[in-house]
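Task card 7
Instruction: Convert sequence to structure tokens.
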Amino acid sequence: MRTVLRRPDFRLLFGGLLASMTAESILLLALAVWVKELTGSSGLAGATIFAIIAPMTLAPLVGWIVDRYPRQPLFVAVNLVTATLLTPLFAVRDRTDLWLVYLVAILYGLSYVTLSAVLSGLIRSLVPAELLADANGVLQTVRQGLRLIGPLAGAALYSTAGGGLLTGVAVTGFVTAAVLAGLLRVTEPPWSRPEPRRCVRTRSSPRSAELGAGLRHLADEPALRRALLGYGLGSLVMGFSESLIFAYVDQGLRRDATFVGVLVTVQGAGGLAGGLVSPGVIRRAGEVGALAVGVALFGVAALALSYPNLWLGCTAVLLAGASLPLTMVGLHTLIQRRTPPRLIGRAAAGAEAVVSGPRAVSIGVGALLVGVIDYRLLFVVVSLVTLLAGGYLWGGRRLSRPPQPPPPAGRTQVTQQSWTGAP
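Output:
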């Protein structure tokens, strides 16, 4: 990771992302706490998270828009727009202003999807292929680190200083990200309107063909197809854990629900470790192999949680925490390496929807099942499905060979691509 951090351009981007990721981390829980205080309803507070996730359904459209513009100026613009979208929160005073919080949550969710899609292409333009895993690993390590302190800091900031200061800090974070990203000097190939493929055979309009091009690429590229099928299978049950962990603490450990916060902290420590080791795992096993390891680790953790024991539980959530950056770094790096620049926005947004959709459904299903089925049995089911998904992914690890080391000094490597060129 030190190699990629020595690059001045990436350090500048990293500084901007650190500011915006800090803003993200303090907002998520704080918005729910804000709604809870305004209404007294836990259901309405939880609905803020759903409002942020809901725009994920627009991912194909978002990706299509992202692919129509150069990454760096678009990244700057979206950060500034995000900062502007948060300003209505300054007007929230009582329950009658609740609609403003939900409106901001929805718009913020849309901007989050957009920023993620733009960032994949921007990193691809800034970093050579052999350092993509390191770049993604650095960002995931920081993101996991912020998960340790950001949500609690945001909630504490709201409780002590109110929503106005919280909003001001978040706005400052996104403006800072825009300013630093604006200083980047990115060499991007000239964009030209791509010729839609398969329009005659599918009898679709050119615009609909462009909208679906990212999903078609994900389905046609063997490594990406294997990665999304395996990870999607695991995601169908991974969301169960969001509800099962409360039953584990209550019925298994016989502790108060607030102890979940301790386990979340341990999970965050595991996330830090996973982010640090993920580039090395990719160099040895490839991106699909890293995905396999991450999904399988989650399966091992779920199996351990089926037996209530404090030390075993801490070890389990540590493994679960490490699994997330392994899967995310593996998937993001695979998309960046296997996708033409002109499609990377649509592919990244489409992959996010393919993975997040099943997971969102599984969170709801898990909340229903935990009330009628023993949580230990459900953890065993989660373990079996994720271990099966991990095995399926491991079987396809040769589809994504580990990236080759950079060429020796003095040798010229030509890898320039156009927005319409093949990978």
